[in-house]
Amino acid sequence: MTSDAPRPDRGFGALWIAAGTANLGDGVVLVALPLIALLIGSSPAEVAAITVIATAAWPVLGLHAGWIVDRVPRRGLLVTVNAARAAVFGAVGAAALADALSFPLLAVAAAVFGVTETLADTALVAAVPELVVPQRLTVANARLEATTNIANQLAGPPLAGVLVAVGASAALATGGALYAAAAASLAMLGRAGVRSTAPRAPQPRTGVLAGLRYLWRHDLQRPLTLLTASMNLVWGAWTAVFVLAAVAPGPLALSSTAYGLVLAAMAVGGVLASTVVGRVQRRLGTALVLLLDCVGTVLLVLPVALGAPVWVVVAGLVVAGAGASVWRVLVATIRQRTTPSELLGRVYAASRVLSWGAVPVGAALAGAATELVGLPAAFLGAAVLACLNVVAFPVLWLRLARYDRDMGGEDVAEFANSRNRSSASRA
What we know:
Largest sheet: none
CATH class: Mainly Alpha
Structural class: mainly alpha
CATH superfamily: MFS general substrate transporter like domains
Number of helices: 17
Helix content: over 70%
Number of strands: 0
CATH architecture: Up-down Bundle
């Protein structure tokens, strides 16, 4: 094995397999839920509401999820969360088979998905630095990101489209089965590296807010999180209403199966980007590479706003997927390298509250705009915001350049501890 590889003897392999399996379940469920809602006759606002409900848990419960992750065994938490998802989606699939499916039941399933995702994603990110040495975090994160792209975006959406064409019960039950398989893989993960690292706190609320205070005082993590939130407004809008543009009788007039294949275009860009992100970052610098995602977010929505043909929309999705993959890998590494281990779960959760909390807002705004002024105008508004994010990006440039310089010549673990010791004590 090369020196760039994560150390499998510490459990990274089992975590990697479980993450891929669970993300395939996510890819099926996240595409199937709004698509099923559309096919059972829900209104545009109701279809958008599925995305709002599925993502609303981050702003509501995200801080508490980080506090929990920092205080309970992470392996047990991951097993429990995936087992719960398996049970819920298996039950909803059974309801669909019995012809008892309705929009309220889909909304409940979306809510359960959102709540469990806050715990699962936070625990996964917090576990990685304890399974992998600091110098290999970018490689480990890139491998997880590539797996996420393949499972969640490349394989999941087409599979969801095929399964929904077969029947709603097939799609929902498959999602449940994949979550069950992820729980089984996580059960094999050794206890080392997935433990709680934070000391007991006499005031739970103080513990919950510690990650938010740390993030807000950090001169790089704060603006990076705020820009992520602004971009996620655009992604939330796209996620909520793209199905209305793509699936017949929408302007792109795709079938359910073709819709899944179009969504897979994002994963193509994401997989390609995740395999080269480390080398490209070292050659071009973090700032220039992250700028790709800002440009990709423009290309996510502008072709639809302009009524472009399907092939142009697909090309935009490839670039958007590449940019999003690069952003997730590098920002995760920045956060892991500049946050003390005992705060990592709460800092990650705080960042998701602020950044992913924008997704349901964007989804709700897009749903309302589609009802009031039409689908093209909703996409045009998202494109304008995406362009403003590109204009705002230079605010981060010097801080990212300083990060590259600081990380280039010293041990990253010692750098993180020394740079953040004073902030950690205040938190």
